[in-house]
Model the fold of this input.
Amino acid sequence: MARLQLALNVSNLDKAVEFYSKLFGADVAKRRPGYANFEIADPPLKLVLFENPDAASRLNHLGVEVECPEKVVAVGERLKQADLVVKEQPQTTCCYALQDKVWVSDPDGENWEIYTVLEDSTPSTREDAKAASVTCCS
Done:
């Protein structure tokens, strides 16, 4: 089952996790330094939080999580056929997971990713963790 993804830059991760846990009645699915995500069943949503207090915008990016790598490829091909500029990122580590993904930008420059998680990953250093929490999805 596919679900929409909303990735937000937050100023305080602890407060944001507490708020979104209450808002959606859901526990955090993954928590790492400067990063948290929720896998919400109703409505079907992947909510991703990046602790990034200096971000120019609270919106980090938008996305659609799909079930398998074949869906990522199929969507990427469909978007290319529609004359959209597609950035492919197969086998990339982002958000503490190995992923296949493609990116497109809307007319106002908002980034959308279509992705699937292949496996969970753990950063090897604290610097890797900090980088993963802010810069991987841009």
Notes: The chain is about 25% helix and 40% strand. The first helix runs from residue 13 to 24. The helical segments are 13-24, 69-81, 126-134.
